[in-house]
Amino acid sequence: MRLHSSWLLLSLLTPALSALALPAVAAEPAAPAAAPVPAAPAAAPATDVSAAAQKAVAEKKPERLPLEDLRTFVDVFERIRASYVEPVDDRTLFENAIRGMLSSLDPHSAYLDAKGFEELQNTTSGEFGGLGIEVGMEDGIVRVVSPIDDTPAARAGILAGDYIIKLDGKVVQGMSLSEAIGLMRGKPGTKIVVTLLRKGEEPRDVTLVRSRIEVTSVKSRLFDDTWAVVRISQFQAHTGRDFKRELEKLHTEAKGNLRGIVLDLRNNPGGVLDGAISVSDSLLDSGLIVSTRGRLEGNEQKFDATPGDVLNGLPVVVLVNGGSASASEIVAGALQDNRRALIVGTTSFGKGSVQTVLPLSANKGIKLTTARYYTPSGRSIQAEGIKPDIEVSPAKVSVLDAGQSVRESSLQGHLDSEKETDKKKATKSGAEKAAATGAKSDAGKQDSSSQEPKKDTKSLAELDYQLSEALNILRAAAWARGPLAPAEVVTEEKSAAEKPKVKKAGKTSG
């Protein structure tokens, strides 16, 4: 009886495993007409991938799956079903086998069940319920890639590089990444205890309250009415459009005196590839942005910049760190290799691969690493990262007490400055007028009010040393260019009229 059941299961598994060996061929034709995931491949339709895969199969004629290995799989399957401490249904075993196949390839390939498929949609759309933390798997432990701005994780002080070892007392090691993410997400307002491990410190528990995560991917700030900082926290479907709108707003606030921008990509975990290409294209007038190369023919793609730099050549400084990954590295690499911007900060994360979402049905799919991406100079940053042109490490800055010092104004009998002379004349004139009219002079009040203690405000260097240095470098770059006429930022309407649309990539990177 056992031999008969093994033969029957083997006969059923053989076509299924053969289909799994070529997921793009078997799965993609069954995809819905309008794939619900923004990351679904638009530039490479399923039929094209299938044709390439079929051609590769016809030319290379891969070996059939070894019968002995199939028998081993069936034997393990039967032993688990018969002897495991608790009953496990066949569907669960099959799905776990698929998960194992994908997770063993690399940290970014994964099987997307109905829940995982929905989570991917939430992530790329920028709205979901949870903690606001981008994570990856490293040696079976969940590692924080970066916290998302203005979320419970960021407010609790969780940093890139932290390890999550427990969730509500449950040990994370042994869980899949999707299982760990599932525990972290939940109904807004509910609490979860996260046990963190940081290098050089003891494990500690952090209690977080889940909230509705609505990620605003692009924010900006103006310094001295001249220098702008644009922060992109994650690349989403509309990041390119939002980036251009922020630049228009900054141009209006600066009243035409915008002299340059710092593009802050620190702790940006990546996201949709189209968003990264659109942002890069906005700042480039020509040249290659990024290229991707895969194993199958037709997987090689090149994305070129189209004419029109929305900043009209104003200097750009890109700020990166170890939490800048994937799509943010594409932007940094494109601007660095095209000599459009100076890269400042520390070496980036080093994720040089592209994941494609291949639908298996209306609500299931696989996220598979299908290609590596290369910067315009042809370098791959996989496990290497983007190295900054000017390295600026995080630092704490404090103002030193200058102590007692003697200046010219401290010397007895020193000559007054022109400002002091004018002030004394004005004070004397005001006192004479007050005496003549019998009114009390306000000069004393003005003097006393001017001597009121100022509020203790920290400088930008004390609050964010890396950003402060990036702004200093930007000022130096603008000064080196010489006097600048007020630059006009190309508006979205002008850009749409003058610049053709960017070719859609249809892949996720992050």
How would the blueprint of this fold be written?
Elements lengths: L1 H20 L1 H5 L18 H15 L6 H17 L6 H14 L6 E3 L1 H12 L1 E4 L2 E6 L2 E7 L4 H4 L7 E5 L2 E2 L5 H8 L6 E7 L6 E6 L1 E4 L3 E6 L3 E6 L6 H15 L6 E5 L6 E2 H11 L4 E7 L6 E4 L11 E5 L6 H11 L4 E4 L7 E7 L5 E10 L15 E2 L26 H20 L5 H8 L9 H4 L1 H16 L11 H7 L9 E2 L1
Parallel strand pairs: 11-12, 12-16, 16-17, 17-20
Antiparallel strand pairs: 1-19, 2-9, 3-4, 4-5, 5-6, 5-7, 7-8, 10-11, 13-21, 14-15, 14-19, 18-19
Describe this protein's structure.
The chain has 510 residues and is of the alpha+beta class. Among the domains are: 127-214, Pdz3 Domain (Roll); 218-396 and 464-509, 2-enoyl-CoA Hydratase, Chain A, domain 1, CATH 3.90.226. 37% of the residues lie in helices and 20% in strands. The protein has helices at residues 2-21, 23-27, 46-60, 67-83, 90-103, 114-125, 152-155, 177-184, 239-253, 273-283, 327-337, 418-437, 443-450, 460-463, 465-480, 492-498; strands at 110-112, 127-130, 133-138, 141-147, 163-167, 170-171, 191-197, 204-209, 211-214, 218-223, 227-232, 260-264, 271-272, 288-294, 301-304, 316-320, 342-345, 353-359, 365-374, 390-391, 508-509. The strands form 5 sheets. Strands 3, 4, 5, 6, 7 and 8 form a 6-stranded antiparallel beta sheet that branches. A 6-stranded mixed beta sheet has the order 10-11-12-16-17-20, sandwiched between helices. Strand 10 and strand 11 (227-232) form a beta hairpin. Helix 1 packs across helix 4 (67-83), helix 9 (239-253) runs parallel beside helix 10 (273-283) and helix 10 runs parallel beside helix 11. The longest helix has 20 residues, at 2-21. The chain is elongated, with a radius of gyration of 30 Å. It starts with a helix and ends with a strand. Mean pLDDT is 80; it is low at 1-50, 439-454 and 500-506.
